[in-house]
Amino acid sequence: MLFSIANIEADTLEEIQSLERDTGKKILAFKGFDVTPASLDTEALNSICALEQKLGLSLLAVDG
Prior knowledge:
Layout: E1 2-5, H1 10-23, E2 30-33, E3 36-37, H2 42-55, E4 62-63
Antiparallel strand pairs: 1-2, 3-4
């Protein structure tokens, strides 16, 4: 399972913001995706790692 920041509708945002006010905490909304990590050879893995470092992001290769 892979999770990313959810794209939410205005009414959902209002509910989350209400919960934030009630708890005094920031709430992040994530959406799950059912994916299978790809098998990588050393060269592909090194290329992905290098690009992650360059971009300051985390990258995940998946099948499909």
